[in-house]
Design goal:
paralog of FGE (formylglycine-generating enzyme), globular, Sulfatase_Mod_Factor_Kinase, EC 1.8.3.7, copper
């Protein structure tokens, strides 16, 4: 499928024009696709209806070969509780971080790790799934990760964030452009996955995406009113607890935390619930539609608006730096259209039942139809 850029982004693509600090601060999350109609031809994105209504019938072989070992056994139990979601001192007010509100959460399970390239490869091998970035033929890549050869072929950028370049051939198998691969980063988070791609993986694994409230509750790891999963100090005792940007963005990442670009999903100490890389490394999709308006009333297991145009993502990425993208805090949030993908966007799954229950259910079905 030939690359097709939505009208909104086409208007943003300009030759490297300078951006203000305000513009940069608003565009740190990642570039976005916007679904548009193709005139009489209907929707450009043919996969939308199938992914959106979550009806996808896998073959018997695909179900038999589901990952009954490994990822499903790497879930942490998240106990029921009440926590303070959001903050009354938002660092980025336009993102809807306020107000703080009391939220009750039912017990559930959360992946200890971001979904890795190795796990996503199992999914693709057994189901034959093709990601949206592969179908579109391109995806967004941070300029600093691209080879000079690839950069010479590109003459467009996102005006508000010129470090984001549309790259033909970039996808989960080629995360830094068509001349790269994942052979030496199988334990790194899978990237260039859209919200719909993440939903399909979770369904194949017998899981689901976490709600924003579940994600934030899990991120806090049992701590109340703290900036990060480990507390308020970014570098307790001078030690790094997350993979973010050190140096001057976007020109120089010094890699003081040991990594430029992504880190293995097992890197850095886990939080109080045994979860790794809840902030930094890669943005993570959640189930919720995006809104910046929240009630201060106490709620029980909220799921966000019933509809919208963008989905919520949480946690920030290796590209986050306080000088322009202070979104590696548990209360921080951002959004993308469900079909968007980029070189800093991944996910992890949640589940309502124990991994053992999921395994038994999977073993008892040779074929599955997803209805939701």
């Amino acid at each position: 499928m030939a690359p097709c850029w939505p009208l909104g982004l086409c208007l943003l693509f300009l030759l490297r024009s300078p951006v203000s600090s305000e513009e940069a601060g608003s565009s740190c999350h990642s570039a976005s696709r916007a679904v548009k109609n193709a005139g009489e031809g209907g929707s450009v994105y043919e996969s939308v209806s199938r992914a959106e209504d979550l009806r996808f019938k896998y073959s018997k072989k695909a179900n038999i070969e589901r990952p009954v070992q490994g990822a499903l056994q790497q879930m942490a139990f998240i106990p029921a509780g009440v926590f303070t979601m959001g903050t009354d001192e938002p660092a980025i007010p336009q993102d809807g971080e306020a107000p703080s509100r009391r939220v009750h959460i039912r017990p559930f399970y959360m992946d200890r790790y971001e979904v890795s390239n190795a796990e996503f490869e199992k999914f693709v091998s057994s189901s034959g799934y093709i990601t949206e970035a592969e179908r579109f033929g391109d995806s967004f890549v941070f300029e600093g990760l691209l080879s000079e050869e690839v950069k010479r072929t590109i003459n467009q950028a996102v005006a508000a964030a010129p470090w984001w370049l549309p790259v033909k051939g970039a996808n989960w198998k080629h995360p830094q452009g068509p001349d790269t691969d994942i052979h030496d980063r199988m334990d790194h988070p899978v990237l260039h996955v859209s919200w719909r791609d993440a939903v399909e993986f979770c369904a194949w694994a017998g899981k689901r995406l976490p709600t924003e409230a579940e994600w934030e509750y899990s991120c806090r790891g049992g701590r109340e009113n703290r900036l990060f999963p480990w507390g308020n100090n970014l570098l307790p005792n001078g030690k790094h607890y997350a993979n973010i940007w050190q140096g001057t963005f976007p020109s120089n990442d010094s890699g003081e935390d040991g990594y430029t670009g992504t880190a293995p999903v097992t890197a850095f100490p886990p939080n109080g619930y045994g979860l790794y890389n809840m902030v930094g490394n890669a943005w993570e999709w959640t189930e919720d539609w995006w809104t910046v308006h929240h009630s201060a009333e106490e709620t029980h297991s909220p799921k966000g608006p019933s509809s919208g145009t963008d989905r919520v993502k949480k946690g920030g990425s290796y590209m986050c730096h306080k000088s322009y993208c202070y979104r590696y805090r548990c209360a921080a949030r951002s959004q993308n259209t469900p079909d968007s993908a980029s070189s800093n966007l991944g996910f992890r799954c949640a589940a309502d039942t124990t991994p053992d229950d999921i395994l038994e259910e999977m073993k008892g079905h040779s074929e599955a139809v997803l209805n939701r």
